[in-house]
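Note to self: keep these together.
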Amino acid sequence: MSGYRGGFGGFGGGNQMQNLMKQAQKMQEEMQKAQAALEDTLVEGVSGGGLVKVTMTAKKVVKNVEINSSAVDAEDITMLEDLLIAALNDGYDKADKVYNEKMGAFGGMGL
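Structure:
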C-alpha cells in the first residue's frame, strides 16, 4: 500500500472529519431545541371578527377552540362551520409562518 497516508480522502485527515461531526451534532441539537420550542409556541387563528378563535401550537396541534355564543345559530350551522374552518386555516397559516421562522435555518439539511 505505498502512497497511503491515512485520513479520510478529501477531508484532509481525521481532525477535520471530527470537527465536521461536532458541527453536525451541534446543528442537530439546535434543531431539536427549535422543534421543542415549536411545541411551546402558541398561535391563534381568528375568524368572524373574533367570533371563533382557535389556539394551536406552531406544530399545528389544536389546544383550544372558543366560539362566541352569537356565532351559534341552530338555523344556520353552516355559518358556524365556515367560521371554524376559517379560524383553523388562519391558525395553520400563522403556525407555518412561525415554523418557517424557527426552522428555516435548517432547511435542506436532512438532520
